[in-house]
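sry for the spam today, last one i promise. C-alpha cells for design, 407 residues
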C-alpha cells in the first residue's frame, strides 16, 4: 500500500462527505453546506473531485484524468485542498447531515405572493400619507422626540435592536427558503460596528436566486419605514398634531432612513456591494478595488517599485475594479455628506445642549443635569469601546501576519 504526501493511501478510496456542486461558466463551486465550507474549482478539477467522491482511489482518479485530458495532474494537491476544506471524513467521523434547515417553511411564507402583496400595500399607503401630509416625511429634526437626551439615545438604541434583527432575519429567511444555513455575527468596519448575516451557501446556488437573500434586508427596512410612517399618521391627535407615540415613530423612521442610506457606503461592503459583486460574478471585488486604488496612488507618487502584483487578481474582479474603485470613493463621499447633513447637526445639537446645562446661566433642574451627565458618559464609553475593538482587531491582524511569517 502506497501513501502519498498527504498521508492518504493512493490505492484506497477516500471517505468523502456529501458535497454540493454548482457549475458557473468555466468554474464549479463545490461545498459542504453543513459547515459552510466552499471552494471554486476549474471544470476538470471538479470532475476529479467527483471521481474521488464516487469511490475512485487517488491512483484511479489520476489515471482517469490523464486519459481524459491528455496530461498528468497532481492528485496530492487536490487531496490537500479537500482535507483543508473539511470534505474528507476522518476515521470514525459520521457523514455530513444535509437535512433541511430549520425555518424553511417560514422563509417561503415570508416571500410568498400574499406577503409581497402586503409589503407593496404598506409601501403605497405610506407614500399616500406623505404626499397628503409632508410633515410626516422623516428628517433629522424628528430625532428630538423629547427634551431628555439620554432618553433619545437609549430610545433609539433600544428601538434599533428589533429593526436590525428584523433586517438580518429577513436575510436569513430568504436564504433558508433556499435550504441554506445562516449565522449572525458582529464586526467592526472603519468606525462602524455592524451586524451581519452570513449565508456562505449562496455561492452554491444559481446567481439569479442569490439576489433576494442579498436584498431582503433592504426590502424589510423599506416596509418597516413605511409602517412607522403609517403608525405616526394613525396616532395623530384629533387636531392633527403629532402625539408622543407619533414623534417616536418618526424618530425610528429617520433612523431607518439612515440605515438605507448607509447601504451606499460601499467601502464597508454593504448589501449593495454584495449585489454588485454577485451580478458581475466577482470573488473579492472590494480587496481588488482597494489594491487598485493604492496602486494608482503609488503611481501618482512615483512609487512604482512598491506596486501590488496585479497578475494573480481574479479576472472578473480586475475588470470590475477599474470602475468600482471609484464607487468606493463615492461611498466615502456619501458617508461624509450624511455625516455633515444629518449626523453632525444631531450630535452638535445634543452635545451643545447637554454641556450648556452645566455651563449656562439659566437654572437647570436636577433631572436635566442627571440626563446630561448620563448622556455624556454613555457617548464617551461608546467611543472608547469602538476604539478598543478597532485596536484589538488591528493587533489580531498583526499577530496573524507575524505567525504567518514565522511559520
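last one done:
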Amino acid at each position: 500500500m502506497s501513501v502519498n504526501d498527504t498521508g492518504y493511501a493512493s490505492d484506497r478510496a477516500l471517505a468523502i462527505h456529501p458535497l454540493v456542486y454548482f457549475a458557473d461558466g468555466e468554474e464549479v463551486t463545490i461545498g459542504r453546506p453543513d459547515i459552510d465550507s466552499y471552494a471554486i474549482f476549474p471544470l476538470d478539477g471538479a470532475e476529479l473531485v467527483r471521481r474521488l467522491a464516487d469511490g475512485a482511489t487517488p491512483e484511479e482518479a489520476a489515471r482517469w484524468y490523464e486519459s481524459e485530458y491528455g496530461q498528468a495532474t497532481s492528485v496530492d494537491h487536490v487531496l490537500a485542498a479537500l482535507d483543508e476544506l473539511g470534505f474528507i471524513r476522518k476515521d470514525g467521523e459520521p457523514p455530513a447531515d444535509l437535512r433541511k434547515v430549520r425555518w424553511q417553511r417560514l422563509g417561503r411564507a415570508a416571500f410568498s405572493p400574499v406577503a409581497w402583496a402586503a409589503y407593496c400595500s404598506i409601501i403605497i399607503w405610506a407614500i399616500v400619507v406623505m404626499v397628503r401630509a409632508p410633515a410626516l416625511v422623516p428628517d433629522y429634526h424628528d430625532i428630538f422626540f423629547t427634551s431628555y437626551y439620554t432618553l433619545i439615545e437609549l430610545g433609539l438604541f433600544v428601538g434599533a435592536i428589533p429593526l436590525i434583527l428584523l433586517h438580518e432575519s429577513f436575510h436569513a429567511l430568504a436564504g433558508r427558503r433556499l435550504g441554506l444555513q445562516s449565522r449572525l455575527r458582529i464586526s467592526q468596519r472603519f468606525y462602524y460596528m455592524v451586524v451581519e448575516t452570513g449565508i456562505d451557501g449562496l455561492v452554491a446556488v444559481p446567481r439569479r436566486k442569490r439576489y433576494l437573500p442579498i436584498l431582503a434586508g433592504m426590502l424589510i427596512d423599506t416596509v418597516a419605514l413605511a409602517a412607522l410612517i403609517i403608525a405616526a399618521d394613525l396616532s395623530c391627535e384629533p387636531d392633527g398634531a403629532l402625539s408622543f407615540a407619533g414623534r417616536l415613530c418618526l424618530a425610528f423612521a429617520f433612523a431607518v432612513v439612515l440605515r438605507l442610506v448607509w447601504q451606499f457606503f460601499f467601502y464597508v461592503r454593504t448589501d449593495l456591494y454584495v449585489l454588485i459583486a454577485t451580478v458581475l460574478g466577482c470573488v473579492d471585488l472590494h480587496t481588488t478595488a482597494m489594491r487598485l486604488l493604492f496602486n494608482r496612488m503609488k503611481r501618482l507618487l512615483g512609487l512604482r517599485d512598491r506596486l501590488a502584483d496585479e497578475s494573480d487578481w481574479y479576472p472578473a474582479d480586475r475588470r470590475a475594479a477599474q470602475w468600482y474603485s471609484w464607487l468606493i470613493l463615492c461611498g466615502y463621499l456619501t458617508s461624509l455628506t450624511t455625516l455633515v447633513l444629518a449626523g453632525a447637526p444631531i450630535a452638535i445639537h445634543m452635545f451643545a445642549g447637554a454641556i450648556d446645562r452645566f455651563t449656562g446661566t439659566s437654572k437647570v433642574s436636577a433631572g436635566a443635569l442627571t440626563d446630561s451627565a448620563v448622556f455624556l458618559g454613555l457617548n464617551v464609553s461608546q467611543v472608547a469601546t469602538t476604539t478598543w475593538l478597532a485596536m484589538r482587531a488591528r493587533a489580531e491582524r498583526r499577530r496573524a501576519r507575524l505567525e504567518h511569517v514565522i511559520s
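The mean pLDDT is 84. ok im logging off now
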